[in-house]
Design a protein that fits this description.
The complex is a heterotrimer of chains A (257), B (307) and C (545). Chain A is an all-alpha fold. Chain A contains ten helices and no strands. The two termini of chain A are 14 Å apart. The two termini of chain B are 12 Å apart. Classes of the chains: A mainly alpha (257), B mainly alpha (307), C alpha+beta (545). The interface between A and C is large, with 40 and 46 residues.
Chain lengths: 257, 307, 545
């Protein structure tokens, strides 16, 4: 607990408030509650947006959505990509060849194309964006973990463990994984960031699904267009997104250290 | 070594084939097609649309279309665009210089900034470490279109130093787009570099070298970067593939033409030959870069040559 | 423990501070903006901002309106529409005759016209163009369909050509006045072939194409020999612009900064908030230009409950405060739309304004009378256990997402629940419509002849998103296309517009207005009858000071 520190506390607080967003948000995030583009004031701490909706309420609800999309994307990337990468890097042989070929093919495709294809086939929406973002990042993550695993495999202590008679899975679990973990985790943090940013980009390109749903990337894209007249929309969304990702990065880094 | 290279080249070709096939399948599964989209607002009748599709070979069985595509690729014929009839090779060629200059410039910036930040984050003194880590985290948390808009306002509108409309491939035109794209991507490289260096810092050979009296700078340069180099090279190679695949946002922000825009419009318009052409180009670039990276890594670290 | 706290705290605040510094920088910059000479175009050349990147630039082949912005001045057409009166005036044809059965059009061509490559203009040139447009290998996406029931041509002599139709087709003159049927040099058409011609276009217009780099720019240069323009092209322009460079600004956020920094002299499709901000500067002039055609509207699916009931549709329209949407999204720079055609479209019927004024009380009463109540206290009306939930398909263009969000919020207060589904492109929209799972879909289209309605309202039309099948509508729309008599057409279209609104088939939102602005270096910017296309020949160059 001590290790996670302030960032962890921040994240936990944010997660809590996101879960309770329906209770603690001052207004309905989908309803027009004031004039459009009102500057921050006592009634609206972060002002209102183009439709006259309260920005603070939307940010509270939006943070939850952004985090969950990024986490879904990240989990699939890290769990699936990480597991496959470890196996490929350690076991080698036919399995490695197959996984590398598939991931290479996916990597060879422009990541934008993969995302576009997923979204074209699965439709637009937050979950689909999560899948698309995760698929785009998965092969890269797999290769990274594989590279780390291969380096570890070449170390003398692995040979020693094998010589003693440890089973391959045991070696994988007890030696390869922990030693590949630092690079993998920090890459995982990068994957989280990329997942969130990819999701924001896909919103920007119009694949967001429900344009009224509060989502930080979408709010940032909208706010960008009205930045000169009403900077508070983009600033609120952007700062929240940045702080969330900063805290997430920090926590992950501490866990890895 | 030769066997390794041969194996690597073969898997590169396999990658090309797999990528082309994946793209083919994905596109055909998508609803609608280029001809229908073009003609739906024009007042054309159903039979007229069907006739056009047939003339372009879109009414053939999927298997036949696949074989046609493959045989075309083998002959080096990328086909013509379904939307404007121009040769796909010409369409891509037009956009290539613009994209390549953007990609190369961004790659240089992202590598330099990334490795530099990574070194600072892992090995600098306290202040440097904090600043570098904060900067890395900030970069990883900022969408590129946000970064780009900020940059345009600060450098083009406010300071007036650089043009917001990027004409051609002169240095002045490229600074802002390459800078934005490169810096946006450098966060990832920095993060991985920092992690690798931090880990290596505790390795025995570093302690030994330090005990021997070697200055840290040299240790970093001569030993650590090389040791962690392969993971890094892989990451940089991956970035290259991504860049060439399309920096759509950057192109839109700076009103540059490029492969990214071409791809986005082609996917939206279901222009199969153009998408396949871009896929082939991207796959080729990726295969070459990836193979080069792997071969380089294996050459320096013979332990990686065995499988 | 304190050290860790301190560290993270400093770390987090560093990040936040950095972000805020950047952001404040922008705020400051927006207050202190000054134009820069970093990107000034060369003297006597202006930069015109295009906003869409069409997939092709050949007017005979491609359908985008964007290509017409430069190319309208590269080509002349047989006839033109006067921008003010919308009447047909002579162009390359000095006069024309229409046979009594409306199936033969005879054009008497001017004799003093030359193409930019020196070739003479005559009836054979027109014939060659018609051949190209109608050839299957050309795969024309718009031009060939604009010719309607055109069957063949007859060249009577060097300067007379006849177009023969299979059945009467009233919009023919309208088609012949558009850039898609502009007359190109037969020599250039032969020389370059179908795919390469768009890079080397040769017409007879007041500007010639000098260079075209796809996706990058188009360069036009004035044609000094031009003397055969329609009456509304100025002949006394004191300082016509010598060179015009067209660049592509696909991202809306780049357009206003480009104008302010002088990187562009003329820009179209500005965002409403940006347009207002620019208009306040005294070195930039705003020019809103209404576009004829169909307004931005939401079409009802009349086969899907609950929008299959006429009274429900009427209640929904009545519940909508369109003026509030115009104020908020469009900053009052667009007029409210009341019917299926915009107010500047020929044969627009002003009586549509009386339909369904906004009245929450009336809407509420109507829904109550239909049996809708909020039985389960979730603030959404229901009937027989089914909530009043509308699925709205929203494309990304035309500010549809913002309008849809307003609708959702307005309806929410009145117990109507709207689920917005955004589609990223036309393919997505067509797929969503095909599924049938929707109640409203946003759409619009442009054109100066109301025959464009046929593509949407005929019972067998491809794009009958409303799934309407009305015998009167079919009959009137078809007949309006077959007679050239304006009075008769006015009658038919009056009936059509009345019927559409009476049956509440659509929820009209706003007439499309293109927000153009230009800097001090040019003046005299005006647009043609179709709204999109600038009359470049009438632009005056003021020079730099």
């Amino acid at each position: 607990m001590r290790r996670i520190g302030l960032s962890g506390a921040f994240l936990a607080l944010w997660a809590l408030s996101s879960l309770c967003a329906p209770l603690i948000a001052p207004y309905d995030p989908l309803a027009t509650v004031g004039e459009a583009l009102m500057a921050p004031s006592a009634q609206h701490w972060l002002g209102t947006d183009l439709i006259g909706r309260d920005v603070l309420s939307r940010v509270l609800h939006g943070g939850a959505r952004t985090l969950s999309v990024a986490l879904i994307a990240l989990s699939s990337t890290v769990l699936i990509g990480g597991a496959l990468g470890l196996c490929a890097g350690y076991f080698g042989g036919a399995l490695d060849w197959l996984l590398v070929s598939l991931s290479d093919a996916l990597l060879a495709l422009p990541s934008l194309l993969i995302a576009l294809c997923v979204l074209t086939l699965a439709g637009s929406g937050a979950l689909q964006i999560a899948i698309a973002a995760s698929l785009s990042g998965l092969p890269a993550y797999l290769r990274l973990v594989r590279a780390a695993a291969r380096q570890v495999r070449a170390q003398p202590y692995i040979e020693a463990a094998r010589a003693i008679g440890a089973s391959p899975l045991g070696v994988l679990w007890r030696h390869v994984l922990p030693n590949a973990l630092p690079t993998s985790l920090s890459a995982g943090v990068v994957a989280l960031a990329w997942a969130a940013l990819n999701a924001a980009t896909l919103h920007f390109l119009g694949f967001g699904g429900d344009p009224s749903a509060p989502e930080l990337g979408a709010m940032l894209a909208e706010g960008r267009l009205i930045f000169r007249t009403a900077p508070w929309v983009a600033l609120s969304a952007g700062t929240t997104l940045t702080l969330l990702l900063l805290a997430a990065n920090d926590v992950a880094r501490r866990l890895a250290a | 070594m030769l066997r390794f290279i041969l194996r690597r080249v073969l898997s590169g070709l396999m990658t090309l084939w797999l990528a082309a096939t994946l793209a083919f399948v994905a596109l055909r599964l998508a609803p609608s097609d280029a001809i229908t989209l073009q003609l739906t607002l024009s007042g054309a009748t159903e039979s007229q649309i069907a006739a056009r599709r047939a003339a372009l070979g879109l009414e053939l069985l999927l298997g036949a279309q696949y074989l046609n595509m493959l045989s075309g690729l083998l002959r080096g014929d990328l086909g013509v665009s379904l939307v404007n009839g121009r040769a796909v090779a010409a369409l891509i060629g037009e956009q290539l210089t613009a994209t390549l200059s953007l990609a190369l410039g961004a790659l240089i910036v992202s590598t330099l900034a990334g490795v530099g930040l990574g070194i600072g984050a892992a090995l600098g003194n306290r202040l440097v470490r904090w600043l570098a880590q904060a900067l890395i985290a900030l970069l990883l948390a900022t969408p590129i279109y946000w970064l780009g808009t900020l940059a345009i306002y600060v450098f083009a509108v406010w300071l007036g130093l650089l043009p917001s409309v990027s004409r051609g491939n002169s240095l002045q035109a490229l600074i802002l787009p390459c800078g934005v794209l490169g810096i946006a991507l450098s966060g990832g490289i920095a993060q991985v570099t920092a992690a690798a260096l931090r880990e290596a810092k505790n390795a025995p050979y570093v302690q030994v070298a330090h005990a021997k009296g070697l200055p840290m700078r040299l240790i970093v340069w001569r030993h650590m970067l090389r040791a962690q180099g392969s993971a890094l090279i892989s990451l940089i190679g991956l970035q290259g593939g991504f860049l060439i695949g399309g920096a759509v946002i950057t192109e839109a922000l700076f009103t540059r033409r490029g492969i990214g825009q071409l791809l986005l419009n082609a996917v939206n318009g279901r222009d199969y030959p153009v998408v396949q052409g871009v896929v082939l180009l991207s796959a080729l670039a990726y295969s070459l870069l990836g193979a080069a990276a792997d071969i380089l890594a294996a050459w320096r670290d013979p332990r990686l040559r065995s499988r | 423990m304190p050290r860790i706290f301190l560290r993270t705290a400093v770390f987090l605040s560093c990040g936040a501070i950095l972000f805020f510094i950047c952001a404040s920088g922008i705020l400051l910059s927006s207050l202190l903006t000054r134009p820069t000479s970093a990107a000034r175009p060369a003297a006597a050349r202006i930069v015109y901002g295009l906003t869409l990147l069409p997939s092709g630039f050949d007017p005979h082949i491609n359908a985008s309106a964007e290509l017409g912005i430069p190319l309208r001045s590269v080509y002349d057409t047989l006839v033109y529409r006067d921008p003010v009166t919308k009447e047909f005036v002579p162009g390359l044809a000095e006069r024309w005759e229409i046979s009594p059965d409306s199936m033969v059009y005879t054009f008497y061509l001017r004799r003093d016209v030359r193409f930019h490559d020196g070739e003479p203009f005559n009836a054979l040139a027109v014939a060659a163009n018609l051949d190209r447009i109608t050839a299957p290998e050309t795969r024309s996406q718009k031009a060939v369909f604009m010719l309607g029931s055109f069957e063949r041509y007859v060249v009577l002599d060097e300067y007379t050509i006849q177009l023969v139709l299979k059945t009467p087709f009233a919009p023919l003159l309208d088609s012949l006045s558009q850039v898609y049927l502009g007359i190109a040099s037969p020599k250039a058409l032969r020389e370059y072939g179908t795919d390469l011609y768009q890079l080397h276009q040769v017409g007879t217009g007041p500007y010639r194409m000098v260079e075209f780099i796809p996706g990058d720019y188009i360069l036009l240069r004035r044609n000094p020999d031009y003397r055969w323009g329609p009456a509304f092209y100025r002949t006394d322009n004191p300082a016509p612009v010598e060179e015009i460079e067209f660049r592509f600004f696909t991202d809306p956020a780049t357009r206003a900064p480009a104008l302010e920094s002088g990187a562009a002299d003329i820009m179209g499709e500005l965002a409403p908030l940006d347009a207002l901000a620019l208009a306040r500067r005294d070195d930039i002039a705003l020019l809103p230009q209404p576009i004829p055609g169909m307004p931005l509207q939401f079409m009802f699916n009349t086969r899907n409950a609950p929008t299959d009931r006429l009274e429900v549709r009427r209640a929904i329209i009545t519940a909508t405060d369109r003026t509030a949407i115009i104020d908020s999204v469009f900053q009052q720079l667009s007029p409210v739309a009341y019917g299926p055609l915009t107010a500047v479209t020929p044969f627009y019927e002003p009586q549509v304004k009386q339909y369904y004024p906004h009245n929450r009380e009336v809407a509420r009463q109507t829904l109550i009378e239909l049996g809708y109540r909020d039985n389960d206290g979730d603030k959404v009306l229901d009937l027989n256990g089914a909530p009043l939930r509308l699925i709205v398909i929203v494309p990304t263009w035309g500010y549809a997402p913002q309008v849809a969000q307003h609708l959702q919020s307005q309806w929410r207060e009145q117990g109507i629940d709207a689920e917005l589904r955004q589609v990223p492109n036309l393919a997505g929209l067509l797929a969503a419509v095909q599924s049938g799972d929707y109640h409203l879909v946003a759409f619009n289209d442009f054109g100066a002849d109301p025959s464009l309605l046929n593509n949407f309202y005929l019972s067998d039309a491809r794009n009958n998103f409303m799934r309407v099948s009305n015998a009167n509508l079919d009959q009137w729309l078809r007949q309006a296309v077959q007679t050239s008599d304006p009075a008769a057409r006015q009658n038919f279209y009056r009936g059509v517009q009345g019927l559409i609104m009476d049956q509440a088939l659509i929820l009209p939102i706003r007439d499309y207005v293109n927000l153009n602005a230009h800097g001090k270096r040019v003046s005299g910017l005006t647009f043609d009858a179709y709204g999109w296309f600038p009359l470049l020949a009438n632009l005056t160059f003021n020079g730099d000071d």
